[in-house]
Design goal:
The chain is α+β, with helices and mostly antiparallel strands. Strand 6 and strand 7 form a beta hairpin. Helix 10 packs across helix 11.
């Protein structure tokens, strides 16, 4: 197996990740090529005086039963591995469920669930970064990685975490941003229809419109009905709303 050397390519694989679906594709695709693994868990947690509160949590390949043992309050993770990672101060750690020194002191329930999920090792990376005025813990856990990656934790942390943090900040901003308005298609109206619509916007009745345009109320009605059908609306109010959204220029000055 060829192990890629951490470098610009690692950061480059995350450059276009700016929304949830893109991150999920990255977890399932490019990340798998960079570090072969069975499952992954990536998160963003806001740092504060009492610890950390999760704001984002993304997983790939992890069972619901396993996630239920470590996820609390939406996106906050309570895991002996995360605690060990944070307390180590190194920003990376490798856990092997087959090594006595690694499992010593680990919560037996978590360890049992970890093994039941088919996991035997875990590479965890984490560090604190600024996102706007706040500090966040950015972390990622990779499950069942080739053993040779144990010696590469620091290199992976330096190469991967800054780019992952930047991607999570972009995702956070995209979730907070208002949706981009969908452009309203401009309607094609005949000159007569434009005259009718202008008077409809002014609140005129069919009879009043007919009098102003020299036509009968029935003729005006026969013009409005197909226009409503064409626009996919059910009544005059919806028709006026659509016209105002797509063609505000039809509103006469001072009307």
């Amino acid at each position: 197996m060829t192990i890629q050397t951490p470098g610009a390519g690692w950061a480059g694989s995350l450059e276009k990740v700016d929304h949830a679906d893109a991150l999920k594709r990255w977890l399932d695709g490019p990340l798998q090529e960079l570090v072969p693994h069975r499952a992954a868990l990536a998160g963003h947690a806001l740092a504060h005086s009492a610890g950390y509160t999760g704001t984002q949590l993304w997983s790939a390949g992890l069972s619901a039963a396993y996630l239920a043992t470590i996820v609390r309050l939406g996106a906050s993770v309570v895991s002996p591995m995360l605690s060990r990672l944070v307390s180590s101060g190194k920003g990376y750690m490798f856990f092997d469920a087959g090594r006595g020194c690694d499992v010593a002191g680990v919560n037996p329930l978590w360890l049992s669930t970890f093994k039941d999920a088919g996991m035997h090792n875990l590479l965890a990376l984490g560090d604190r970064f600024a996102c706007g005025p706040d500090q966040f813990l950015t972390s990622i856990a990779l499950y069942n990685v080739p053993p040779e990656f144990e010696a590469r934790g620091e290199a992976l942390q330096l190469a991967l975490l800054p780019a992952l943090h930047a991607a999570l900040c972009r995702i956070q901003q995209s979730m907070a941003a208002p949706p981009t308005p969908v452009p309203v298609r401009r309607l094609r109206l005949t000159p007569v229809e434009e005259d009718i619509v202008r008077l409809l916007i002014q609140g005129k009745t069919n009879k009043e419109i007919g009098q102003l345009l020299g036509k009968s109320a029935e003729t005006i009605k026969s013009r409005i009905s197909p226009l409503m059908h064409r626009c996919g609306v059910k009544n005059r109010t919806e028709l006026v709303s659509m016209i105002l959204a797509s063609q505000p220029d039809l509103v006469a000055p001072g009307s």
